[in-house]
Amino acid sequence: MFTTTVTVRGYECDANGHVNHAVFHQYGEHGRTEALRAAGVDVPDLTAVGLGPIILESTVRFLAELRVGDEVEVVVDVRFGEGKTFRMDTELRRGEQVCATLTGVMGLLDHGTRRLVADPRGKLLALGDPQRAPQVLGEASPSEK
After folding, report:
1. Rounded distance between C-alpha atoms, residue 115 and residue 99, angstroms
2. Going by DSSP bridges, is the β-strand pair 2-7/71-80 parallel, antiparallel, or unpaired?
3. Measuring CA to CA, which of 21, 55, 73, 113 is 20 to 30 A from 63?
4. How much is the mean pLDDT over the chain?
């Protein structure tokens, strides 16, 4: 698990005074990017080796309003299986209250072939900080142990 914090800004809110629906996706993207950075993998590092993170599916479940000035914890849970995709699920929390959940299916795109790469966890671990990456990038699947 990885956690970062954002503060709701006025321009992110709609006419009803709460965070616009599209901004929830942006908070999820911020959390995913910061989780990779915490593992020692910046997007330029991926680009340099011809890879890029890709979102294949993203769903938001809205549970409570977020308003200007709210401090929001963005909690990202990264899980890998045996295939070419992995999950980066997120909770947006205000204090103890879960305000939204975002489920996401991700992959690593090979820029040359325009296809998903096999073993995305292995690729990320190889690029990441060996002291931080295993904790941020979750447990290995049973077949990797």
Report:
1. 35
2. antiparallel
3. 55
4. 91
User: Which residues neighbour 136 within 8 Å (Cβ) at sequence distance 6 or greater?
Assistant: 2, 35, 36, 38, 39, 78, 128
Nearest to 45 by CA among 56, 36, 54, 35: 36
Given a cut of 60, whether residue 140 has pLDDT beyond it is no
CA distance 94 to 128: 30
Topology annotation, domain 2-140: Thiol Ester Dehydrase; Chain A (3.10.129)
pLDDT tens digit sequence for 65-121: 999 999 999 999 999 988 999 999 999 999 999 999 999 999 999 999 999 999 999
Examine the pLDDT at 53 and tell me if it is beyond 70.
yes
What is the rounded average pLDDT of the residues 7-15? 96
Please state, as a whole number, how many other Cβ atoms lie within 10 Å of the Cβ of residue 137. Answer: 26
Contacts by 77-80, CB closer than 8 A, 24 or more apart? 77/1, 77/138, 78/2, 78/35, 78/136, 78/137, 78/138, 79/138, 79/139, 80/120, 80/121, 80/137, 80/138, 80/140, 80/141, 80/144
